[in-house]
Amino acid sequence: MYTDKVMDHFSNPRNVGEIENANGVGEVGNASCGDIMKIYLRVEDNVIQDVKFKTFGCGAAIATSSMVTEMAIGKTIDEALVLTNQTVAEALDGLPPAKMHCSNLAADALHEAIKNYKEQNV
Asked: In Å, how far from its chain's centre is CA 93?
């Protein structure tokens, strides 16, 4: 059902936790399945230096959260905004169709964190 990459990111999630004094925080959730994702950013000179996440949800939700943090670190804000839930799923070698819309919210949470960062740093 799940790819090896999904299972790896679920079993060994990267960048779990919070960033104290984060300069961007975004949270999204899906009421139908109960998944909630919160992303914390530390941005310096328009480059994402650190990303952490806290996710309440199924294995796919944890895996997508982990993957998006890996994909965002080192990118500029504009480069990170190009990431989509589809590109996150592709980086995990796919997700079951039933998980694409309920558990794959990681890029949305990242975009919310970037929006929060921009609001604080205009």
From this structure: 16
